[in-house]
Amino acid sequence: MIRTVPVGLGDRAYDVVIGPGLLDKAGEQIAPVLGKRKRVAIVTDSNVGEHHGERLAVSLEKAGVAVDVITIPPGEESKSFEGLQDLSDQLLALGLERGDQIVAFGGGVVGDLAGFAAAIYKRGIDFVQVPTTLLAQVDSSVGGKTAIDTPRGKNLIGAFHQPRLVLADLDVLCTLPARELACGYAEIIKYGLLGDFAFFEWLETNVRAVLDRDVDALVRAVGRSVQMKAEIVAEDEKEAGRRALLNLGHTFGHAIEAEMGFGDALKHGEAVGVGMAQAFRFSAKQGLCSSQDAVRAEAAIKAAGLPTTMADVRAEPFSADALVAHCGQDKKAEGGKLTFVLVRGIGDAFVAKDVDREALKAFLLEEGAI
Question: Which domains does the chain have, with CATH numbers?
C-alpha cells in the first residue's frame, strides 16, 4: 500500500511517497530527480547506516547512481556549528559539484543538518529526504525547514530549502526503538490537535495500532499528517502566517529542551508532548478553551507513553524566568512580544501574538517551575 502526497510549490513541487518496501526501490525513485552526472552523497548516522545503509546504496548503484557515504554521530549534538563545519568539509573533500545531490538518510537530526548543508554548499545544491524515524517522516522531512541548534535555542540558524523528493519507507520503523516511535506519534497527534478533530478521534481509538507498527494504521496516520503539512506549506511556505500553527507545543517544548541541553535526556518529540499539553492547559487558564478539552488532549498524549508535565521529564524544578527567556528567543516572536500557538479547542489552534509575560510566568510557576 503506497500513498503519494504532492507538495504544491509550483516549479519546486515534489512528492512525498509513503509505504513499505521503498528503500529497495529508492534508486528508481531518486534517479529521475538527479542531474546528468547521477552522483549523490548519502549523509547518514552510524545507527541508520548499520541497519539500512547498504540497501540504500545498492539500490542507488543499481539505478546507475554514483554513491559516496558520509556518516555522522547520532544524536542532537550533531546539529551544531561544529557538526555543520565537519559535514561541509567532508562534502568539499568529495568534490561534490553543484549539479550533484545530497541524500539525507536518517531521522530529524540528519535531515535538518544535511538539508542545511545542502542549502549553503556552493550556494545551494539539491537534496532528497529519506527519513527513517516516524517523527521525521511526518514532520521534519516535509516543508523545507533546515537548521542547526545553538546554546541559545533550537533551530535558530537555518534556511528554507525544499527537497526534490521525500521517500518514507514504513519498513524501516521496525528497527526504531519504542521511545523514538512515541516521539513521532507526538507530531502525528499534533495535526489532530491543531486542525482535524476527526483525525484526533481516530487516533484516540487507534493509538496502539500505530505504535504497534500496523501498516494500514501507519499509512493512514503518516499520510494524513503529511497531507495536512503539505497543504499548509503550499499556502505559507516561509511561516509568514498559517504555517506557524505547525508549532503547536513547540514554544513551550523548545524552552524545556534548551534548559536540558538538547541531549538524549529529553527527545524532541517528548518535549513537544509536554509543550502541547502545556499549550492546552495555558489556553484553558486564559479562558480560551474548556478545561475538559485540556484534560482530553493531555490524556491522548499520555496514552502514547509521552510526558505531559515538566515533572515527568526532570525531578529538579525548572526556572520560570529562564523558560520565559527562552520563549522570547522563539523564531515566531515579533517586536519583543511573545508568540504562542494556543487553542480554542481540540482541532482549533491559532497564533497568539502578544502573550503576557507575567501571565506566562504565573502559569509556569503553577506548573512547578520556581
Answer: 3-175 (3.40.50.1970), 194-366 (1.20.1090.10)
